[in-house]
TrEMBL record:
Record has Transmembrane as a keyword: no
Keywords: Hydrolase
Stated name of the protein: Haloalkane dehalogenase
Entry EC no(s): 3.8.1.5
GO MF assignments: epoxide hydrolase activity; haloalkane dehalogenase activity
Domain AB hydrolase-1, residue spans: 51-155
Source organism superkingdom: Bacteria
Gene, per the UniProt record: dhmA_5
Pfam family of the protein (one): Abhydrolase_1
Length: 315
């Protein structure tokens, strides 16, 4: 439904009865100078005074992606915050593609983190959660005590060892062109296509739930175009500035990539080489997962994060 000109909001009944998703919704009104306040949805589970796990999804998913990781992380003693980026999930959805940029997505998330005064954060980021979350970490590093990069990237269009050889490559280039030239996106089929095993129909329906029709998908289509594919692209300067901070980030930094995601695997080595806090960490490739490893191997991913954090506390 259109709540005002230029902003859509998915009806609540679209989110009824989702599998393994008993979590209560929470909302924050993020300011936007052009569109007015935008309602941003987030999950908030666990003790309010506990260390924070900030779980960031990418495109075209939403916080549903983390449903099987949230319970074990809460049981391990963490407060888990899983937002839906503006344009996704239960968050408001600007209907014009030009409303979306990497800077806007980082800004909306930063406002949420500041409003909740989140500290002692362990960032867990996948896909577009990486560029958004790592730029956020670079802007407010004092709030973060650790980070997990999972099937993600932070491109600057620089050659190795600062970047990936042949960037952006045929997979990213084709995906960006598909989104640029499309008026609609088969969200659940996009997710299924990059899984090792096709998710159950009810799970795929849950990924479609935020998007009743094409009018709700501007963000899902536009965000791909925000990937900087050339040195002149918006986002390059911000990503290079973020890397300047990450190259001094000596707090624990873990990579958890999957064994079946050719689109991001080359970035694993870049993170491990460039971030000081990655040295000596128990990096792993999780077996049996494609791009959306939280969907296919969420419990295994949570288990590795919990063991890593406990080992760090014991050291």
């Amino acid at each position: 439904m259109l709540i005002r000109e230029g902003v859509a909001r998915t009806p609540d009944d679209r989110f009824a009865g989702l599998p393994d998703f008993p979590f209560a919704p929470h909302y924050h009104m993020a300011p936007d100078a052009r569109l007015g306040p935008l309602r941003m949805h987030y999950l908030d589970e666990g003790p309010r005074d506990a260390p924070v796990m900030l779980l960031l999804h990418g495109e075209p998913s939403w916080s549903f992606l983390y449903r099987r990781m949230i319970p074990p992380l809460v049981a391990a003693g963490y407060r888990v915050i899983a937002p839906d980026h503006v344009g996704f999930g239960r968050s408001d959805k600007p209907t014009a593609r030009e409303s979306y940029s990497q800077a806007a997505l980082v800004g909306w998330l930063a406002d949420l983190v500041t409003a909740l005064d989140l500290r002692r954060i362990t960032l867990v980021c996948q896909d577009w959660g990486g560029p958004i979350g790592l730029n956020l970490l670079a802007a407010m590093p004092e709030r973060f005590e650790a980070a997990v990069a999972a099937n993600t990237l932070l491109p600057t269009c620089e050659p190795p060892p600062l970047g990936v050889a042949g960037w952006p490559g045929p997979i990213i280039t084709a995906w960006a062109e598909t989104c640029r030239t499309s008026d609609d996106l088969a969200v659940s089929e996009v997710i299924a296509a990059v899984c090792v095993n096709r998710p159950d129909p009810a799970v795929l329906a849950a990924y479609d739930a935020p998007f009743p029709d094409a009018a709700y998908k501007a963000g899902a289509l536009a965000i791909t175009g925000c990937i900087p594919l050339a040195t002149s692209a918006p986002g390059i300067a911000a990503n290079r500035a973020a890397w300047a901070v990450l190259e001094r980030f000596d707090r624990p930094f873990l990579t958890l990539f999957s064994d079946s995601d050719p689109s991001t695997i080359a970035w694993e080595a870049v993170f491990q080489a460039r971030v000081p806090g990655a040295a000596g960490q128990p990096h792993a490739r999780i077996a049996g997962a494609g791009h959306f490893l939280q969907e296919e191997q969420g419990p295994a991913m949570a288990e590795r994060i919990i063991a890593w954090k406990r080992a760090g506390q014991a050291a």
